[in-house]
Automatic annotation (TrEMBL):
The keyword NADP applies. Residues 4-453 form the Aldehyde dehydrogenase domain. It holds the Pfam family Aldedh. It comes from the Bacteria. InterPro entries: Ald_DH/histidinol_DH (IPR016161), Ald_DH_C (IPR016163), Ald_DH_CS_CYS (IPR016160), Ald_DH_N (IPR016162), Aldehyde_DH_dom (IPR015590), ALDH_GabD1-like (IPR044148), GABD/Sad-like (IPR047110). This is Succinate-semialdehyde dehydrogenase.
Length: 457
C-alpha cells in the first residue's frame, strides 16, 4: 500500500499513489542541494534574475496542465487556478526586475572608517513546508525570493497536492535554473523533523495553522534555525457607517468565497457598525444565497468542494458548536448530500466570544456577521483575536481609513475599500498567532540572508 493517495474532492475518486522517499534518498538530495548552492551563491544577481524570469516563462507553457491538476487535486475553481499561476508569473517578473536593487550592497559613510558596507549574502538550503490551498502560489512565494537571494530550495508539499508539487519541480527543472537548486521531497513528519535539524539546512519556512506553526517553530528553535511562519487568521472586514455598502458587500463576498473560502487572508469576520448593519445584512445574505457550489471545472460554479472530506467535517463541527453556543444561521450551514466534499456558502449571526466562529479560523465558505456599536467598537472587536494576518476597512473617508489601518489595526496587512490576495510589491505576513517574518515587497529576499557588516579602515 502506498504512503500517499491523492483524492479528487469533487468526485471522491482516487487520483494517484505515491511512496515516501527513503532517508538515504533524502540525504542525497540534501547533499546535491547544498553543492548546487555553493555554485549558485557565486552567480551574479543579474544572472539569477534571468534564471528566475525563465521560470515564469516556463510556468506559462504549463499553465493549463498545472491549473487542471491543481483543480483536480484540491477542488479550486479552474478559473482561479489560472489566476493563481498568473500571480506566480508576476512574482517571478517582479523579483527578476527588483531583486538586484534589493540585494545591492549598502555602502555607508562612517566616522573613523573609510566606509562601512552592509552586504546581503545567501546562507544555504531553505526548507519549506507548504499547504494545499494555493498549490503553486505558496511554493513560488518563498522559492523565488530565496533563489534570488542565492539560496537553494527544498519543498515538502501537502500530501493531497503531491502531484502539483512534482509538476512544479518539473517546470523549474525545464527552466534555466540549475536542477538541484529546487527539489520536491515526499517525506513524513518524522523525516521532516530530522530535516529541520540537518546541519546543511539553514532556514525553515512554513505556511499552515498556528498549531502546526508552534510545532515547527519549536523544532527550528531547538536546532537554532531561522524560521518564517505564515499561519492562520480570522481576518476582520470592518464596514463603517460612511462605507459604500455596495462595494463593501461585493468585496466581502468575494474575499470570503474566493478559493472556496480556503484562504488564510480571507474575510472571515464581517464587523458592521449598527447604523448600516441591517442594509449590509440583507444584501450579503442575498449574495450568499445566490452562490452556487459545483464542479470547479464548470464556469457556472461559484465555489467548488473543500479540499478534503475531513476538512468539511471539521468546518461543519465548528459551525454546529457555534450554533450550540448561541450563533444563528442566516444562510447555509447544511451538509449537502451526494459525492464530493461540498459545503454551502454560509453566514453565522449573533457571533460572540467563546464560539469557534468568533475565536478560531473557519477554513471554508463560512462568514461570521458581527454587529458593532460604532467605529471604536468595530476596531475593538477586530483586534479581539489571537490572530493578526490581514483585514479590511470600508469607508468613503480614505484618510481616516488609512489612519485606522496604520495606528489601530493590529495586523500585518490591511485592505481599504477593496481586496487582493497578495501583491508582489507589498509585504505579506502577520503578527500574534498569525506568525512572523515577511514575504514579497523586497522583504522576502532578505529573510534568509546573512546581513554582513564589513568595517573598512
Amino acid at each position: 500500500m502506498s504512503d500517499i493517495t491523492t483524492i479528487n474532492p469533487t468526485t471522491g475518486e482516487e487520483i494517484k499513489n505515491y511512496d515516501y522517499m527513503s532517508t538515504d534518498e533524502v540525504n542525497k538530495i540534501v547533499d546535491a542541494s547544498h553543492n548546487a548552492f555553493l555554485e549558485w551563491r557565486k552567480v551574479s544577481h543579474e544572472e539569477r534574475g534571468r534564471a528566475i524570469k525563465s521560470i515564469g516563462d516556463k510556468l506559462m507553457e504549463y499553465k493549463e496542465e498545472l491549473s487542471k491538476l491543481m483543480t483536480e487535486e484540491r477542488g479550486k475553481l479552474y478559473s482561479q487556478s489560472l489566476q493563481e499561476l498568473d500571480l506566480c508569473k508576476a512574482i517571478c517578473d517582479y523579483t527578476a526586475e527588483n531583486g538586484v536593487a534589493s540585494l545591492a550592497d549598502d555602502v555607508r559613510d562612517i566616522e573613523g572608517m573609510k566606509k562601512g558596507i552592509v552586504s546581503y549574502q545567501p546562507i544555504g538550503i531553505i526548507y519549506g513546508m507548504q499547504p494545499w490551498n494555493f498549490p503553486a502560489y505558496q511554493v513560488f512565494r518563498y522559492t523565488i525570493a530565496n533563489l534570488m537571494a542565492g539560496n537553494s530550495i527544498l519543498l515538502k508539499h501537502a500530501s493531497n497536492v503531491t502531484g502539483s508539487g512534482l509538476l512544479i519541480e518539473k517546470i523549474l527543472h525545464e527552466s534555466d535554473l540549475p536542477s538541484d537548486l529546487f527539489r520536491t521531497i515526499i517525506i513524513d513528519h518524522d523525516q521532516s523533523e530530522a530535516l529541520i535539524g540537518h546541519d546543511k539546512v539553514r532556514g525553515v519556512t512554513l505556511t499552515g495553522s498556528d498549531s502546526a506553526g508552534a510545532i515547527v517553530g519549536q523544532q527550528a528553535a531547538k536546532a537554532i534555525k531561522k524560521a518564517v511562519l505564515e499561519l492562520g487568521s480570522n481576518d476582520a472586514f470592518i464596514v463603517l457607517e460612511d462605507a459604500d455598502i455596495e462595494v463593501a458587500v461585493e468585496t466581502c463576498a468575494q474575499a470570503r468565497l474566493i478559493n472556496n473560502g480556503e484562504t488564510c487572508v480571507a474575510a472571515k469576520r464581517f464587523i458592521v457598525v449598527d447604523s448600516v448593519y441591517d442594509e449590509f445584512r440583507k444584501r450579503i445574505v442575498e449574495k450568499f444565497e445566490g452562490t452556487k457550489a459545483g464542479d470547479p471545472m464548470d464556469d457556472s460554479s461559484d465555489i467548488g468542494p473543500l479540499a478534503r472530506i475531513d476538512l468539511r467535517e471539521q468546518l461543519h463541527d465548528q459551525v454546529e458548536k457555534s450554533v450550540a453556543k448561541g450563533a444563528t444561521i442566516a444562510v447555509g450551514g447544511t451538509v449537502p448530500e451526494g459525492k464530493g466534499s461540498f459545503y454551502p456558502a454560509t453566514i453565522l449571526e449573533n457571533v460572540q466570544k467563546g464560539q469557534p466562529a468568533y475565536d478560531d479560523e473557519l477554513f471554508g465558505p463560512v462568514a461570521s456577521l458581527i454587529r458593532a456599536k460604532d467605529e471604536e467598537d468595530a476596531m475593538r472587536i477586530a483586534n479581539d483575536s489571537r490572530y493578526g494576518l490581514g483585514g479590511a476597512i470600508f469607508s468613503k473617508d480614505e484618510e481616516k481609513a488609512i489612519r485606522l489601518a496604520r495606528e489601530q489595526f493590529d495586523t500585518g496587512m490591511i485592505y481599504i475599500n477593496g481586496y487582493g490576495l497578495a501583491n508582489p510589491a507589498l509585504p505579506f505576513g502577520g503578527v500574534k498567532n498569525s506568525g512572523y517574518g515577511r514575504e514579497h515587497g523586497g522583504f522576502g529576499v532578505k529573510e534568509f540572508v546573512n546581513i554582513k557588516g564589513v568595517h573598512v579602515f
